[in-house]
């Protein structure tokens, strides 16, 4: 009462129809004593006749300001941490993807079998596709060259025998001798056909980087089916068969490839088993591995040949006839085992030879 506030901004501006507000320190030397003033006009018949000012110390708003600062700080730190986590996850995923592609490229450069890493899209998929295309083109050229050389070398012998026999047949000779030469031509032609068929199967398997058709196959039923197909040959030789693979055992495999591999093993075993001998199938467990074992009674493999029996085109003479096979059977079996993540093992044991197909235990249930 009796004081003049007309020169204060809140009153001065409000009396002139403007927005009036000011902030004034109660103690000029202490900024924490600031007080905010906001004025509103008092109207009478459209005329400003006075001013009402509301004052509030700034210190009363400080807790709200402090809480707001704390929230902003927490939110900022959270965003920074989230950004770091997202960046780390992206960096880990990218590094992991590149490591997979690097391992694939290294395996290809070393001539090993490896499956192309799967990517859903983007630059990594384009890069993986380009690497696979390059591998196919480079490997295909070397593969064809290698096979042309080996096939040419292996075809020389049977072709020479066929040509020699055909030349002799053109001249006069006894019927018995003529029949023998004709039989030679038929036998060598059959050998050529077997070689070509097995080379085609082997070429297909060698070009595969991973199994294309995996199924759960009952192992005992597969062995029984295979032995049934050789029943006539087994009976004619008077062989004893011991099938010791229990029923209910399932093998995760490519049925077609495994059937062909087992057929090659049985074919070899029958060639080297004497009349009245024994063939035995059994399943062997060894830690994290499982082996399908085939034993055939007969002569041991010579020491100089034991390490070469799975080598391409390497073959031992069959007992009795002295003839050699195409030398592709066990090589095919070894390739099939590698595709399944396993291995082929051939050993001399008491009374004969044992062949084992080792597989990871996870494939057998």
Task: Give an account of the 3D structure.
By secondary structure, this protein is α+β, with helices and mostly antiparallel strands. It is 50% helix and 20% strand. The protein has 8 helices and 10 strands. It has helices at residues 9-15, 62-109, 122-169, 175-207, 219-229, 231-237, 255-272, 329-339, and strands at 20-25, 34-44, 47-57, 215-218, 240-243, 250-253, 278-286, 289-297, 343-349, 352-360. The protein has a 5-stranded mixed β-sheet, with helices on one face. A 3-stranded antiparallel β-sheet has the order 1-2-3. A two-stranded antiparallel sheet has the order 4-6. A hairpin with a 2-residue loop joins β9 and β10. α3 (122-169) packs antiparallel against α4 (175-207) and α5 crosses α7 (255-272). The longest helix is centred in the N-terminal third of the chain and has 48 residues, at 62-109. The protein is rod-shaped and about 155 Å long. The mean pLDDT is 81.
CATH superfamily of the domain at 215-363: Histidine kinase-like ATPase, C-terminal domain
Which CATH architecture of the domain at 215-363 would you pick? 2-Layer Sandwich
Quick check: average pLDDT?
81
Beta fraction:
15-25%
In terms of topology, how is this protein built?
Elements: H1 9-15, E1 20-25, E2 34-44, E3 47-57, H2 62-109, H3 122-169, H4 175-207, E4 215-218, H5 219-229, H6 231-237, E5 240-243, E6 250-253, H7 255-272, E7 278-286, E8 289-297, H8 329-339, E9 343-349, E10 352-360
Parallel strand pairs: 5-7
Antiparallel strand pairs: 1-2, 2-3, 4-6, 7-8, 8-10, 9-10
């Amino acid at each position: 009462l009796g004081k003049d506030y007309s020169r204060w901004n809140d009153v001065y501006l409000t009396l002139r129809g403007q927005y009036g507000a000011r902030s004034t320190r109660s103690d000029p030397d202490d900024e924490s004593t600031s007080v905010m003033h906001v004025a509103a006009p008092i109207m009478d018949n459209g005329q400003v006749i006075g001013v009402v000012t509301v004052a509030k110390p700034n210190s009363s708003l400080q807790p709200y300001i402090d809480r707001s600062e704390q929230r902003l700080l927490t939110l900022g730190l959270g965003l920074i941490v989230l950004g770091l986590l997202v960046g780390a996850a992206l960096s880990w995923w990218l590094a992991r993807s590149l490591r997979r592609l690097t391992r694939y490229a290294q395996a290809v450069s070393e001539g090993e079998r490896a499956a192309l890493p799967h990517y859903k899209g983007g630059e990594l998929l384009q890069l993986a596709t380009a690497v696979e295309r390059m591998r196919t083109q480079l490997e295909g050229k070397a593969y064809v060259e290698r096979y042309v050389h080996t096939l040419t070398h292996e075809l020389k012998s049977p072709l020479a025998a066929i040509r020699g026999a055909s030349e002799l047949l053109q001249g006069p000779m006894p019927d018995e001798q003529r029949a023998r030469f004709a039989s030679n031509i038929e036998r060598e032609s059959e050998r050529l056909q077997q070689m070509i068929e097995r080379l085609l199967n082997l070429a297909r398997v060698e070009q595969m980087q991973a199994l294309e058709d995996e199924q759960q196959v009952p192992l005992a039923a597969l062995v029984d089916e295979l032995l049934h197909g050789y029943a006539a040959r087994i009976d004619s030789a008077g062989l004893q068969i011991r099938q010791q693979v229990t029923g209910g055992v399932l093998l995760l495999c490519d049925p077609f490839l495994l059937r062909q591999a087992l057929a090659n093993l049985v074919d070899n075993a029958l060639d080297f088993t004497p009349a009245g001998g024994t063939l035995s199938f059994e399943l062997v467990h060894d830690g994290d591995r499982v082996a399908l074992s085939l034993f055939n009674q007969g002569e041991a493999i010579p020491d100089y040949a034991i390490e070469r029996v799975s080598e391409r085109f390497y073959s031992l003479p069959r007992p009795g006839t002295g003839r050699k096979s195409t030398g592709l059977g066990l090589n095919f079996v070894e390739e099939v085992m590698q595709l399944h993540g396993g291995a082929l093992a051939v050993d001399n044991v008491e009374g004969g030879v044992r062949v084992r197909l080792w597989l990871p235990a996870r494939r057998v249930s």
